[in-house]
Each structure stands twice: as structure tokens, then as C-alpha cells.
Write a structure and sequence with these properties.
- The chain is built from 10 helices and 28 strands.
- It is of the alpha/beta class.
- Strands 23-24-27-26-25-28 form a 6-stranded antiparallel sheet. The chain has a 5-stranded parallel sheet with strand order 3-2-1-7-20. The chain has a 5-stranded parallel sheet with strand order 9-16-10-11-12, covered by helices on one side.
- A hairpin with a 7-residue loop joins strand 21 and strand 22.
- The longest helix is centred in the C-terminal third of the chain and has 15 residues.
- It starts with 17 loop residues before the first strand and ends with a strand.
């Protein structure tokens, strides 16, 4: 999971200090590991609603029918040997930041106290709100847990499948299920997949490649679900979409984003960011309460590349870095999150796509390279400043650019030299007006 040389982990035995970590995703796990690597001597208690020890959720859309042993981050002995206590199947109902107390769901008395707290709760897949007709039917799922992945795998074989949404989960799941499902429909409000992140040009290229490789997958652009239809067994049997088009199906997966798992913080005193319900943190990932930190998908944090110099980023790599930074700051190292640059990747039917930076609200793109040969790079600019780069079919360049961003984030105005060296022809420019 980490891309650095790990320090030896030693079993600790001092019990007069305690860090509680809420959540067991990459953020929570990275925090626990880093604390032990850096010599934290006290108790580390991880509380999770999951029934499993930490595992890599990104692999749920990359391996059909994966089992826990295929995607676990560490074995059970790792947590035992390093004195990391993990409380499974447990939902936190309330936090009292004044008394530094944690209440499990249904408990009227505190179950845990802490010296430092790290909130790494992630998001829950978004459902339709208000609800639409038929959303209670069986075989309508989201994909966020290992159990859901197993069930989707069981149902999908030789069936007609509808995937709602056109970003990473839907597109990766479509590719994964294509060899086994009879027919797959992708319902997209956007014109192209990944449109909000990559823009229309890259979206169109990826969609064309995707459609050529997967003939049993149909992409329905500019459409929305009106309602679900069921059979006499209360199972989904169809989806009615825009223009009264009816699609037969026996399985639906909804992938339309997520909502922060922060309901339990509503009366905690811990500040949430405006109307997003994300935890608001400073550049050290600390909340408005000293000793209470937060990281991962469910926070709003300072980011130099953002249009408002704050943002929320839901990606595995950045969540892992948040966990490490929070751990170091729990140890009072004062490590600044402003020096961390988002980076993520996806694979679209063999095409490697790499993205670094934070391009929200970009107003100009510069496209270098050859789209037809699937070797190109798009530069995203905002107010004449480079804020993100997306590379397709040029992995080495993507790695160079990620390192350049990391080292010179505030200095990049012109197009980076590695792009100019790689592509001899001038770019195609396109400007945008948002809002």
C-alpha cells in the first residue's frame, strides 16, 4: 500500500497514552502503521463498522469474486504483533470532544476515552434522495463492501445489468462484468464517462475505446433513471429511463457518488465545513479541537491547487498520505498537508490513465500528443496557472510530472518541460466557462 521503505515495527507496551482511530480504510490503517513505525508507545485502538480487518476497497472493481485474503492489507498477526487493537462490527454513535469520550451506537455511557483522536470514516455510497419508485427491490446494490462485491458477482453471471453513474466504479465494474454478464447498460447524466474529472475530450476518447472493446456494454448518455420495475418476487426486472425507454435487467448497481459518514459528529462540537458535512481541518489535519485530527474522503482540507484553496478528494493514495501526516502530527512533528499533491490512476480496457493535481474549476485545457494512438497528455489550467495533468498511454511522463508538482507546486505557470520534450507538435487549446 505504501511506496516507501518501511521502518521496523515494534510491539509497544506503555498504556498511559491512547490514540483512537475511527475507520479502517487506507487512512486509518496508514495512521496506525505510521504511529508504530515512528515509535509511538501507547495504545492504538481502531474502531470500525466493518466485519473485516483493513482491506483494499479499490480492488473490488478489479477482481471478480475476490475474497478477503485476496485484498487484505495485512494479516491478523500484524495487528497482534504490533499491539494495534481493532474493534470490528462496531458503529460509533457519538463523540464528545469536550470530555474526549466516544460512545458506541446504542450506548448511553462512554465506551472509550482518548488522548488523541483520528477520524477516518470515509463515505457511504449515495442513494436517490428523494427516493424513486422501486428502489426497495432486491438486487439493487451499491458497491462499497466485500459482501456487496460477492453478491454482485453471484447475481451478474449471464444476467442483464444496469450500472447507474459513469465514473470510476461503474466503468471499472462494467469492464470486470462484461465477460460474464449477458448485457450491460450504463446510465449517465453526463455526455461522456469521467466527464467531470477529465473533461469531454478525454471522456470521448475513453468511451470510444471502451465501446470497441466491450460490445455487450451500451452507454446511455444524458439520461436519468425515472423508476425501477419489479417482478412478483420483489426483484428488480427493469429500469425506466429518460424518454420512457425501458431496459430489462436483473441486477442494478448504483454508483453516483458518496456522502460523508459524519452523522455521529453533529453534536460533537467538531466543526463541519459549511453544508458539505465534511470535517473541517487545518493544514496539519487538526480540527477545531486540539488533539482531534481527521483525514481521507470525509474532510475538507487546505489544498494549494484548489480554486478556493480548500477541497475534498476521495482517492486511495491521498487517504493513505493523510493517515501518515495525521500520525506524524499526533506525534507533534508539524507536517504540513499543503505539500501533498493528489495522484490517482485507472485502467480503461488496457489504457493506463494517470492524473496528478487538482483541476476542479479549470478554465482551459491544452492537449498534447496523438489521440488516435492513445498517447497524449492534457494540461488543465485555471486563471493561467497549471493545476492538473492527465496522461494516457505515457506512464513515465505521468510519474515525472507528479514529482515535479510535488517539488514545485507553487512555481508551475508554464507547461512543464517534460511535456514539451515528449511532444513535438503544439497543443490543441480549449477554453471553458463554468457556472
Amino acid at each position: 500500500m505504501v511506496d516507501r521503505v518501511q521502518k521496523p515495527l515494534k510491539k509497544m507496551c506503555q498504556r498511559d497514552q491512547k490514540v483512537v482511530i475511527i475507520g479502517s480504510g487506507p487512512c486509518g490503517y496508514s495512521c496506525a502503521q505510521t504511529l508504530r513505525e515512528e515509535g509511538y508507545p501507547g495504545r492504538i485502538v481502531m474502531v470500525t463498522k466493518d466485519k473485516y480487518l483493513p482491506y483494499d476497497r479499490t480492488k473490488l472493481t478489479k477482481k471478480l469474486g475476490c475474497a478477503f485474503d485476496d485484498i487484505k492489507i495485512r494479516s491478523e498477526t500484524f495487528y497482534q504483533d504490533n499491539d494495534i487493537e481493532v474493534i470490528l462490527n462496531t458503529v460509533v454513535g457519538r463523540v464528545d470532544a469536550e470530555s474526549r469520550s466516544i460512545y458506541f451506537e446504542g450506548s448511553s455511557n462512554p465506551n472509550l476515552s482518548y488522548d488523541s483522536l483520528f477520524i477516518a470514516v470515509g463515505m457511504t455510497p449515495r442513494l436517490y434522495s428523494p427516493a424513486i419508485t422501486g428502489d426497495h427491490l432486491r438486487n439493487i446494490y451499491t458497491l462499497h463492501s466485500l459482501e456487496q462485491c460477492m453478491r454482485i458477482t453471484e447475481v451478474a453471471r449471464d444476467m442483464e445489468v444496469v450500472l447507474i453513474g459513469s465514473s470510476f466504479i461503474s466503468m471499472e465494474l462494467a469492464e470486470l462484468l462484461s465477460p460474464f454478464a449477458a448485457k450491460i447498460h450504463i446510465i449517465s447524466r453526463s455526455k461522456v464517462p469521467y466527464g467531470l474529472v477529465f473533461g469531454n475530450t478525454i471522456g470521448e476518447v475513453l468511451l470510444s475505446h471502451f465501446s470497441n472493446k466491450l460490445p455487450n456494454v451500451t452507454f446511455h448518455s444524458g439520461t436519468e433513471v425515472k423508476n425501477f420495475v419489479g417482478n412478483n418476487l420483489r426483484e428488480v426486472s427493469g429500469v425506466l429511463i429518460t424518454n420512457n425507454v425501458s431496459l430489462n435487467c436483473q441486477l442494478v448497481v448504483i454508483a453516483i457518488g458518496g456522502t460523508p459518514n459524519t452523522q455521529f459528529l453533529q453534536d460533537s462540537g467538531i466543526q463541519l465545513y459549511r453544508n458539505t458535512n465534511c470535517v473541517q481541518v487545518d493544514q496539519y489535519l487538526e480540527t477545531n479541537y486540539a488533539g482531534v485530527f481527521a483525514g481521507g474522503d470525509a474532510i475538507n482540507f487546505p489544498i494549494r491547487l484548489g480554486p478556493n484553496e480548500r477541497g475534498t478528494v476521495a482517492h486511495w493514495q491521498l487517504a493513505s498520505q493523510h493517515g501518515r501526516v495525521a500520525a506524524l502530527n499526533i506525534l507533534r512533528r508539524r507536517v504540513n498537508i499543503l505539500n501533498v499533491v493528489p495522484f490517482f490512476w485507472t485502467n480503461v480496457c488496457g489504457l493506463q490513465v494517470r492524473y496528478t493535481g487538482y483541476g476542479e474549476g479549470y478554465d482551459e485545457t491544452l492537449l498534447y500528443g496523438n489521440i488516435d494512438k492513445f498517447s497524449f497528455c492534457t494540461v488543465y489550467r485555471r486563471n493561467q496557472r497549471l493545476v492538473a495533468v492527465c496522461c494516457v498511454g505515457c506512464d513515465k511522463l505521468a510519474a515525472e510530472l507528479a514529482m515535479l508538482f510535488q517539488a514545485n507546486m507553487d512555481l508551475i505557470v508554464d507547461v512543464p518541460e517534460p511535456i514539451i520534450k515528449r511532444f513535438s507538435h503544439p497543443p490543441t487549446s480549449e477554453k471553458f466557462i463554468h457556472g
